[in-house]
Amino acid sequence: xxxxxxxxxxxxxxxxxxxxxxxxxxxxxxxxxxxxxxxxxxxxxxxxxxxxxxxxxxxxxxxxxxxxxxxxxxxxxxxxxxxxxxxxxxxxxxxxxxxxxxxxxxxxxxxxxxxxxxxxxxxxxxxxxxxxxxxxxxxxxxxxxxxxxxxxxxxxxxxxxxxxxxxxxxxxxxxxxxxxxxxxxxxxxxxxxxxxxxxxxxxxxxxxxxxxxxxxxxxxxxxxxxxxxxxxxxxxxxxxx
Length: 241
Description:
The protein has 241 residues and is of the alpha+beta class. It is built from four helices and twelve strands, in the order βααβββββαββαββββ. Strands 1, 2, 3, 4, 5, 6, 7, 8, 9, 10, 11 and 12 form a twelve-stranded antiparallel β-sheet that branches. Strand 4 and strand 5 form a beta hairpin. It is globular, with a radius of gyration of 18 Å.
């Protein structure tokens, strides 16, 4: 298990003065990065080993979005390895122990030379001490695509979308999808399924579907071949405060 303390910054909040989902996702990504770097299993280690962790799915549940300047504790812990797949939980809580948000994530370890799945080496299995699974209602990894989706204007991958691996960062997929959520709508759960990597100058065609109660938005970021790069599902409601 790994934790770090922080304070909600002005640059991390939306018009309502609360942490945005995008910033929450950044906190969770930072937690796993800090954890790996502190163990000597971070970006440099993976590059030497010609390996990379590729995110397969997110499930993030938000109980309350913290306010500007609120002190928080962010934590993460891996809880299982199965072959080349790793499973990791995340959470954010107040200093008093109020659980603000929590998440599950599934990752695949890839060989960057052979472009095939790779089993974690012994030092990685020894370094990541496994914890108990976080108590939560675990959703399936796969997300169903509704058949009532409407195509939106085409997007193009720009340099600011890319991470250190040269691919569109998983958080950027979520940011793109969030552009199709109403401004007066608060996300309570976000699920994302990553199907393939998008790179510089790829063209993405968002297909947006909304259920009749307008409590569920599904955004499929498709390629020109109609196959999805990612599918992002948002569950929530209009603001009540």
